[in-house]
Amino acid sequence: MVVIAVLGILSALIVPQFTGTMEDTRLLSAGRELASVMSLAYSQSVTLHRACRLRIDREKGRYWLESPSQGAGGGFEPVDGVPGAMGNLDPKISIQVKSPGGLEEGGGRAGAEAPRSGDIETLSFRPDGTADPREVILRDREGFGLSIEVHPITSRVRLNRLERVEER
């Protein structure tokens, strides 16, 4: 009976620790998934010598790659038949896309919102290996964050952990 009581107390102390680990894993997984699709967009654009763009629907938490349409109408169409060219992110992760640049009045760096239609963000990758400079910020419900930066000249993607933001 004493053993069961001790196990119950230890369980009560240990189980809450796993929640943070689960949230961290979810956030890191979403970050790696987006970084991977950004690398795929770069690879597609350089290999096929055509622009490729990543579309992120922030509201629905989904993403997909598009390439120029081969039809007479022009425009872009989703990339088909390429594994990883579309997917969904965990709905518990919030997404924000920023373009670097601009200075706030106080001299601090401010990220302007990226071009979009509604809640759909666009990141373009060009055949010459360049890309739109973007920073994608992912946050979990606990306030922990991850930044995915796309370098405009090399299209390299870099993941950075962000400071926790306390909800008000």
Explained architecture:
The protein is an alpha+beta fold. It has one domain (23-162): minor pseudopilin epsh domain (minor pseudopilin epsh fold, 3-Layer(bab) Sandwich). Helices cover 28% and strands 32% of the residues. The chain contains 1 helix and 11 strands. The chain has one helix at 2-48, and strands at 52-57, 62-68, 76-78, 86-88, 94-99, 112-113, 116-117, 120-125, 134-139, 145-150, 157-162. Strands 1, 2, 3, 4, 7 and 8 form a 6-stranded antiparallel β-sheet that branches. Strands 6-5-9-10-11 form a 5-stranded antiparallel β-sheet, with helices on one face. Strand 10 and strand 11 form a beta hairpin. The termini are far apart. Mean pLDDT is 82; it is low at 102-114.
Write the layout of secondary structure elements.
Blueprint lengths: L1 H47 L3 E6 L4 E7 L7 E3 L7 E3 L5 E6 L12 E2 L2 E2 L2 E6 L8 E6 L5 E6 L6 E6 L6
Antiparallel strand pairs: 1-2, 1-8, 2-3, 2-4, 5-6, 5-9, 7-8, 9-10, 10-11
Total beta strands = 11
Tell me the number of helical segments per DSSP (H or I, 4 or more residues long). 1
CATH class division: Alpha Beta
Note the overall shape: elongated
The secondary-structure element order is HEEEEEEEEEEE
What are the segments in which pLDDT stays under 50 over at least 5 consecutive residues?
A: 102-114
Short description:
The chain has 168 residues and is of the alpha+beta class.
Provide key terms for this protein.
168 residues; 6-stranded antiparallel β-sheet; elongated; alpha+beta
